[in-house]
Design brief:
The protein is α/β, with parallel strands linked by helices. It is built from 15 helices and twelve strands. The strands form three sheets. It has a seven-stranded mixed β-sheet with strand order 4-12-9-5-8-6-7, with helices on both faces. The longest helix is centred in the first third of the chain and has 43 residues. The radius of gyration is 68 Å and the shape is elongated. The two termini are 135 Å apart.
């Protein structure tokens, strides 16, 4: 359908055409010599317009067909005019309506064609250019990977810095104590001041190797006694028997002193506990020099250690020499009668003998300190005696206790009784003349006074004791 607008533009089926192309020219009859145009058969299909080539102008197909027809017609007309006459004109007239009708048919063939996007053509690059492109692409990828790795490293560093800042701002947990085997063993054996004791022990070993130590005329090795011999029994004193001392201040700090105590316990542990009490807990840390029986020094190994510990024979000459030298001398007048008495006679003092200790105190003018020991009677309760074996071994007795010999070596472990050591008021002997030591009545009276003082102290301590073991 053809419409005509006001500005002289013809629209044919929605396609804009100029008015010159839209006018229909009269169809001329071909000449006699002109070839006839074949007719399209009834069943022939209308040709499908081809898609425009990439880069060509997008315009309606009818306009292109019309332009071609006009061009052909002009060319034919020109030819007929210049040379051939009637045939040329006929040909021009024949071709002019053909092109016009062809333009009409193309214009009326359908709706306005769609605008098709051109397909990008793949351009074949030379090998050298392709290789250069690959290298550039690889370098670009490497640069991108390095940049991404650097950015990841920076992110991790920032995260670590934030974590450290958070840890620094947060309250720090207490450090776990480092486990030290040497320190642990040292504390178990030597207590909290084990380092000081270890240093003292090393110094002691150095002096023993070099021979830089002293021994008196009785064989007393002060350093060996303090650092070794008494150290073996200190755990018993402090932790096992838990010894409590009373009246230590009554023992003079200087000068000769005679300690007289009761004896019990089957084994002479009461004498060793008294020695530790004076050495460790007395204000002047005085060493106790004991007067022991002859059998002690005849026993192998025991006699040598007794000499090293400063003990000597229970005789007046040795006792007087020690007291004159200002030593603290200890004596247990009951002897084996007291240490070996049955458990049924516990805390009952035996006879003190002839009072030789009193004579030594009178000749030297030294005070006598009565001392009572409670707790030793229960460590080995003696319920019997194997006298044949004692005679065979050459010892005063072989005790039978609730644990020995039934438990074998385990029966030698003492019972953990609670101990008390009480030092009484000193008995002054300085007012007596040294020759009064030969007066038997004076010696007997002083001996009886010491014995009664010790017995009364024992009874008093037994009344105050709550339990044998506590």
């Amino acid at each position: 359908m053809t419409e005509k607008s006001d500005v002289g533009v013809v629209r044919l089926n929605g396609v804009r055409l100029d008015e010159s192309h839209a006018q229909e020219q009269p169809q001329s009859q071909p000449g006699p010599g002109a070839p006839r145009r074949p007719r399209a058969s009834a069943g022939a299909k209308r040709p499908i317009p081809s898609r425009p080539e990439p880069g060509s102008a997008l315009r309606p197909e009818s306009a292109s067909a019309g332009e071609n027809g006009s061009t052909n017609g002009a060319a034919t007309n020109g030819t007929g005019t210049n040379g051939t006459g009637t045939n040329g004109a006929a040909n021009a007239r024949a071709s002019q309506p053909s092109s016009s009708s062809s333009g009409k048919a193309s214009a009326g063939s359908g709706a306005r064609p769609r605008k098709a996007l051109p397909k990008p053509e793949k351009i074949q690059k030379p090998d050298s250019v392709a290789d250069g492109d690959d290298l550039a692409a690889n370098s670009a990828q490497a640069t991108e990977s390095e940049a991404s790795s650097a950015s990841e490293a920076e992110a991790e560093a920032d995260a670590e810095a934030e974590t450290e800042a958070d840890d620094a701002s947060a309250p720090s947990a207490p450090a776990r104590p480092r486990f030290d085997m040497i320190d642990t063993v040292g504390r178990l054996i030597g207590g909290g001041d084990w380092e000081r004791r270890a240093s003292r022990g090393l110094a002691f070993l150095r002096r023993r190797v070099t021979g830089d130590y002293e021994i008196d005329e009785f064989g007393f090795d002060r350093e060996l006694t303090e650092n070794v011999l008494l150290s073996l029994f200190r755990p018993l004193y402090e932790r096992y028997f838990r010894v409590e001392t009373r009246g230590l201040e009554r023992v003079p700090d200087k000068g000769g002193v005679l300690i007289v105590a009761n004896h019990s316990g089957t084994l002479p542990l009461d004498a060793i506990m008294t020695q530790i009490a004076l050495a460790d807990h007395h204000p002047a840390h005085r060493n106790l020099r004991m007067l022991a029986a002859d059998v002690v020094f005849t026993m192998p190994f025991v006699g040598e250690l007794a000499r090293k510990a400063g003990h000597t024979l229970a005789c007046n000459p040795d006792a007087e020499r020690l007291l004159t030298a200002g030593e603290v001398v200890g004596v247990w007048p009951e002897g084996f009668k007291g240490i070996g008495k049955p458990f049924a006679d516990r805390y009952r003092l035996q006879r003190f003998g002839r009072g030789g200790f009193v004579s030594a105190a009178l000749r030297t003018g030294t005070p006598i300190v009565p001392t009572a020991i409670v707790g030793a009677e229960e460590i080995y309760p003696k319920i019997g005696d194997i006298k044949p074996l004692a005679r065979l071994l050459g010892v005063p007795y072989v005790p039978v206790t609730p644990t020995f010999p039934w438990l074998g070596p385990l029966g030698l472990i003492p019972l953990p009784s609670k101990w008390y050591i009480a030092f009484g008021e000193p008995i002054d002997t300085s007012a007596y003349d040294p020759g009064s030591a030969d007066d038997p009545m004076l010696v007997f009276n002083l001996t009886d006074q010491v014995r009664e003082t010790i017995q009364d102290t024992l009874y008093r301590l037994l009344l105050q004791r709550r339990s044998v073991f506590f």
